[in-house]
Amino acid sequence: METFDLTVLNETIKEKSKFIDVLKSQISAIIVGQEDLVDKMIIAVLSNGHVFLEGLPGLAKTLTVKTLADSIDTKFHRIQFTPDLLPADILGTLIYNPKDASFEIKKGPIFSNIILADEINRSPAKVQSALLEAMQERQVTIGNDTYKLDEPFLVMATQNPIEQEGTYPLPEAQIDRFLFKVLVDYPTEEEELSILKKMGTITEIQEVKPVVHTQDILQARKIVDQIHMAENIQKYIVSLVLATREPKNFGLSDLSGLIDFGASPRATIYLAVASKSQAFMEHRGYVIPEDIRKVGRAILRHRILLTYEAEAEDVSTDDIITRIFESVPTP
Q1: What are the strands, taking DSSP E only, across the chain?
Q2: For 124-143, what is each residue's pLDDT tens digit?
Q3: Which of these CATH numbers, 1.10.3720.10, 3.90.1300.10, 1.10.8.80, 1.20.120.1460, describes 227-327?
Q4: In this model, does residue 2 exceed pLDDT 50?
């Protein structure tokens, strides 16, 4: 019976996931390279999660987010974070109407489907706390009233890793709300040449039109929930997370002095959800270990806090994640 159900599910997924290829094709017509970034953003849309993008200026972070948003029939807003930004600039505020002596709500740019929080670390804590409620609860409080945000609602935040002047460190509680932390790197030589050929003119960039409807996304999420995850795959996810907390139990005693805090239970949840979305991206009705490894690094990267000893030895979280993937037995 299970085989029959799985066969039916596979056929359903092959049909309902066709829009993924159309979406990726349109984005690749604008964006050269950055396949990992594009895949992670689409998985985030399917998984109802936010994405944290870290990379140097000029690596097409903003352009990629905007291209994705324009390819989906949704509302999009870009918010440029600055030191003088106020919570009301994002959320909205109450405006007094003298005609009938009442206050009217003026909604801010947060009332969209996809939000680009550009250089998110340039605004102070009060702005971050206002954004945090929207990210976690999918709602906004203005005055005494609370307003639900439309689905889908995603925050794509960017940060420049080398510029520290005039920036504010993001609280760990907020960073943990992001499904992925994606490191955006330089393009290859071939990709750089393609960028020159495609973008080396003063004419406008090709117009992007919606090829995916909001309903496609919401229906896809329901199907993603149905994707089969075997018990040994579930135990594999739990073992990966536990290895970040108690590495000595997995033959990684040398990492104990390098990890200050391991990943939270939210990492376990996100590994399960994102690996199902990865399987959906590949038109498959069940999760395999490779799905978890594909999404795992971007999920664990910002949830492992290192000790001063690790920083002194120039050990990164990616180094530790690599060791964990190599040491935890694969089902």
Answers
A1: 50-55, 72-73, 76-80, 92-97, 102-107, 114-118, 139-142, 145-148, 154-159, 178-184, 212-213, 259-261, 305-306
A2: 888 888 888 888 889 888 87
A3: 1.10.8.80
A4: no
